[in-house]
Amino acid sequence: MRILFTGGSGKAGRHAVAHLVAQGHRVLNLDLKPLDLPGVDTRLADITDAGQVYDVMSGYAGFDELEPGTGVPRFDAVVHFAAVPRILITSDAECYRVNTLGTYNVIDAALRFGIRKVVFASSETTYGICFADGERRPDYLPLDEDHPTVPEDSYAMSKVVNEATARSFQRRSGADIYGLRINNVVEPHEYARDFPRYIADPALRRRNIFAYIDARDLARMVERCLMVDGLGYQVFNVANDVHSVDRPTAELIETFYAGVPLRRPLGPRESFYSNARAKALVGFQPRHDWRDEIGG
Description:
By secondary structure, this protein is of the alpha/beta class. It contains nine helices and nine strands. It has a single domain, classed as 3-Layer(aba) Sandwich (Rossmann fold).
């Protein structure tokens, strides 16, 4: 596939781009900073400027595409990860502006150019737990995509709006538009650095619902979404199968979630952040258990 990937220079994006290239896809990165990856060109552009987005989406992905003399090829898919990645980086209003306007521009341009597959990054924060003022607990466990999304912060608000925007574009166009409610992304080098602290103090993971997603598994989820057609509008929780702490499920429930209803029995290490829909609909199969990454 010929893929436009926005935000490919970021923490999650660079792993996804590298994986897609390794699978034989042609990827053009749209970002504010270059990505140092052989075989991938970066177009420096601002997603909040519709003209720049339209220009990149209708342009060449590299000098080699000039050679056939048959004009600019069309992208087969767009993966949209570009965003202000959390609160407390920019002003709240700027975070909201960039993320909502940028997503509108990217999906709008994709559909106007006839692209029928868009995958975009939403967030675990939509559930209102991660950046809450004080403690917020899930309404029930395991937390699935039907759980209410009523956040209080500008970043999560922007992601909820982006989901509504995507759903509206999909209804008008009939294209496939899939949103990924991505949990806390962990790169390979971060296991040895961070997980000993999580073992010592599980409360550090409360705001992430004790879950995580390995950056390489997130890349595989992106690929699965690109390969599976015909689902219309969908949102998927994206997380690994197990908790990110060294405590059994029953102990975590007793300590942190006493009184929270359980909708079904949970395995002794099963994540509270359900990835069942992603497994069922696109065949997602995460591979990286944090215990293996730090030597058991």
